[in-house]
């Protein structure tokens, strides 16, 4: 099965393709040094894969060996690895893959200056060429937007009509275009050198109902302006609930701290019942705590009351969605020593 000049028992190293012109530019030196550790890791993994693949080939487990050769070459490209990979493909019956890889290996060997490997790869490729199976995809009447795939891979338009090499076996071809029914067929290639044609017909239009079903659904949007009564009313009512809720919390804080201030004031009077300076430290501390808590309670009541009232006004004056309303509301708090108030104004 091997072409003249290839001996699988002869050791072939994973010679790598390098462009030594890199070293002519000194500015690349630092880059090469920095990438050395990562490249060394790739080389080690590539060598391990290469060795395992050779072992599998020796056991005639070609379907397992070929992917390992391919991954070894991906990690650290080498002409020797490519030749082993191509040979593996050929043994596994993947004639087109073997032919393409031998051709690639010849170019890699030429770049290395390995004339012997280059000649070997070219001879193997030439030997395989008459055995290539091919598929020609012909499109006499292309449908607008037509896309053709073979085994899931796109067949580019410049390739239409050409007999392209493929591995033996069954291949699935599919043609699609927007708004049209798809075309799908399978082609089986079992004989060496066999060529088959696939003619893609002009795709039929989809029925109107099917086109509507397959068309993207337009998201429904609310065209009501944000400044309209519906949005403004809902937003204002929400704001009123939030402001009122915060006000209620403020009133609760005022109530709790007020009760605490009353309790501390009682403790202070129990410790210091007489007017004038108090000799009890605990009584003085209780009196100071009572004053602080009283201040917090006052602030809580004033702020809570204002916010609760403002929230109620916002909620009650929010425009409804049934009839347009325009209005303006102003809320002005006033606080002075010993008193607090809320001024409301505006048009409704």
TrEMBL record:
<keyword id="KW-1133">Transmembrane helix</keyword>
<feature type="compositionally biased region" description="Polar residues">
    <location>
        <begin position="209"/>
        <end position="227"/>
    </location>
</feature>
<keyword id="KW-0812">Transmembrane</keyword>
<feature type="transmembrane region" description="Helical">
    <location>
        <begin position="299"/>
        <end position="318"/>
    </location>
</feature>
<feature type="region of interest" description="Disordered">
    <location>
        <begin position="321"/>
        <end position="348"/>
    </location>
</feature>
<feature type="signal peptide">
    <location>
        <begin position="1"/>
        <end position="40"/>
    </location>
</feature>
<feature type="compositionally biased region" description="Polar residues">
    <location>
        <begin position="321"/>
        <end position="337"/>
    </location>
</feature>
<protein>
    <recommendedName>
        <fullName>PEGA domain-containing protein</fullName>
    </recommendedName>
</protein>
<keyword id="KW-0732">Signal</keyword>
<feature type="region of interest" description="Disordered">
    <location>
        <begin position="209"/>
        <end position="234"/>
    </location>
</feature>
<keyword id="KW-0472">Membrane</keyword>
